[in-house]
Structure formats: structure tokens, C-alpha cells
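Researcher: Checking consistency across runs. Here is Citrate synthase again:
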Amino acid sequence: MATALRLGAFTLRSSMAAPASTTWKSTAINGYRAYSTGKAKTLKETFAAQIPGEIEKIKKLRKEYGSKVVGEVTLDQVYGGARGIKSLVWEGSVLDSEEGIRFRGKTIPECQELLPKAPGGQEPLPEGLFWLLLTGEVPSEQQVRELSAEWAARSTLPTYVNELLDRCPNTMHPMAQFSLAVTALEHESSFSKAYAKGMPKSQYWEHTFEDSMDLIAKLPTIASTIYRNVFKDGKVAPIQKDKDYGYNLANQLGFADNADFVELMRLYLTIHTDHEGGNVSAHTTHLVGSALSSPMLSLAAGLNGLAGPLHGLANQEVLVWLQKMKKAVGNDLSDQAITDYLWSTLKAGQVVPGYGHAVLRKTDPRYVSQREFAQKHLPDDPMFKLVSQVYKIAPGVLTEHGKTKNPYPNVDAHSGVLLQYYGLTEQNYYTVLFGVSRALGVLPQLIIDRAVGAPIERPKSFSTDAWAKLVGAKL
């Protein structure tokens, strides 16, 4: 496989030469031309071919079953944050309470096995999961390599975004800077410019696709610029055109000299992408996008939701709690010491961070994948040993406590410990990495929404008095 990307007078080729018999195909993409072998469809071609069938499927479903009742809503659900109300369409993933997340029907272990990997790597490339989430198909190695090259070619930040980030005070939270930069990229939006000129609805998805590809391509440089400005020397390595997305993020952060950290980034970016459509960051991106806001504005809104302590900041809170526990118990990781600390947390009216989930009733498979990574790469790390003991003891304590529906760990219970082991210790930054990954999960749905003509989202609301009247209550 070989790929060349023509930017102005320059042609960038991958490190693998094309065979002499290769037939090159040229496609214009936002001012440059992408050349790839004709043996594999591009992501855009693959998705475009699926659109008529998907539209027809939805039309048939609504025509034949549109009046079918799919559930009921209780007043408790209305006042409980709409928890469990079935009302959203989300193609990329479905969360089962017992077996966890499935990406287009595939479990995390299946994705780890089936999705293409970097040469010599063991973890799946996030490019492959993006392809899977958008199309429902597992891409070939060639298709993933070409997607990596396309993102690398689109990665250059406009000067004004670099200047904007450089002017941000170091005291501004990294997530605020992240949202600010993504919002500023609205200036580059293909969708917004085409809409202002009066494009037909049939072209909505194409411009949403182009914006999403441009946006994803630029996120590692944005995220790394924030990290290097706030915590390091402000210098950011350039994107390496022949490397994959996870490697480039690790390299720009300053950690690519550790091959295990690069593998961790590939795993981290893959498993944090998508978790159904009802979580705050996914639903917000979808909701804002339903108003035909650009992918830039839609994702920025989702990032602002991700920044909340009940959503994306959770892994940071877990690590703080674990560090306090380590300081309290020292080297005593006995069952009794851990049990006592867990009870002291609960009796103080606090929750055990990283345990419990709105839907899951078993150990989060994303936690399991990180645990397996740690067992392979850092089995003797003191903090990992502590995490393992908490994993052993906490479910029993929480079950005895009786106030937790799910006493098992979620993804946040592990990720912070892995990051700090490799030297990325700045906890305020962790949610930015989550945001880079989450973009890979929410933007495919935005593209799908525009392709199938999803309408603006507008549920009905009532006042408390109106709800009381509706249920026949006298207040």
C-alpha cells in the first residue's frame, strides 16, 4: 500500500512504495488531492454507497411501525434526569447492562482483535474504530493507513488558532482552551460556508463529513499545544505524515519515546470514543448539530458538557481519591486496610469514585481492557496494585452498603493511574485526552444524521404544576 498527498507543489508519500502495477486514483479534498491505490474504497466512498439503503431502511421502519409504542415514561424518570427513557437514535454503539458496550455490534475484545493495528503494535488503531462507527464495517489495513495519511495531511492549524492558544493564560482550564480552539475553527467550516450559499439538503452530509475529517485531524495538535503551553516549554512537534493518529498525539505531547505509552494512547483513544448517545457529551453534540450548527460548534458544545465533574472529570477525581488512599494506607494493601478506607469514604457521605454506572451492572469492559494493559506493562506499579485491591474489595463493600445499583468499576477507575505511570501526571489535563477520543465517536453520528435527514430535536416539556395536573396530583 502506498499513499501520496499533494499539497500545493509537494507530494507526501507513505514509507511503503507502491507496486509498479498500481493504478492511482485522484480525489479532491479541501484544496488538496489525495492519491490512493484503486484497490480499496475510501471512507467517504464507502459511506456514500450506504446512504440510499439506510434512508430506505428508516423510511420502511417508520412507515410500517411508526405508531408502535416502544416504552413508557414515569414521573420519576422525568424528574430523574430522563434516565432510561428510550428516545434517541444512535448508530455507533449500544450499551448492554450486562455485557457492556458494543461498537456496531462488536465488543471491545472483538474490536481489539479485528481492527487494524500499527506495524508491530498490539492495540487497535482509533482510525479503524472511526471507520467502523461511521460505516458498520471493519476496514482493511490499507484503508486505515490511508485514513491515517489523510488526517495527517489535514492537520495543519490556522495561524489564528495557534495565536489564540498562545494568548490563553496558563491558569485557564485546559478544557476551556480546548473548547475555545474548536469553536474558533468554525471560521474554516465547509458546512457553514456552503449553507450560507444555499446548498441543497442532499449535500449536507458531504460538508459535515469534510468538516469532521478536518476537525479530527487538527485535534491532536490543539490538545498538544494546550499541554505544552500550560505544563511544558510551549514547543510542539510537527505531525509526522507517515505515522498513525495515536502515535502523533503521543509524539506531540512529548511521550513518543516510550513505545508502551504510544500503545496506551491507541487503546485510550479507541475505548473512550463512544458510549451510546444519551451521555452528556454525545447528546449535546447531537442536539446542537440537529439545529444545523457546524461540526465545530456542535463538538465544542459537547466538550463543554464533557468538562463537567459528573462526566469527563471523573477519571481525575478517581486518581485524587486513590492518591489520598495511598497516603493513608501507605504500603499496607491488606484486605482489611482497603476495607476500612472504603467504609470511611462511605460513612463520610461520599461516593467511591469510579464505581457504579447509570446503565452497566457488571464491570465495565473498558476498565477490563485497561486492567489487562496494566497487567502486561506495569504489573509491579504500586498504584496499579492499589487499584487491583480496590477492585477486589470494593464490590463487596458497596453491596453491603446497599445504596449502589452497580458495585463494579467503570472506565474512570483505571485510566488516570495508567497516565500518571508514564509521566503524564497533570490531572487537570486528562479530560482533554477524553475529548479527543470522544470526537471520534460523536462526529460519525453527526455525519449520519445529516445523511439520513434527521430533524431538529425538540422534546416536549412541562412545568411542575402541569406535570401534577397530567398525573392527577393535587399539590
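Researcher: Does this match what you'd expect to see?
Model: One thing to look at in this run: The chain is about 55% helix and 5% strand.
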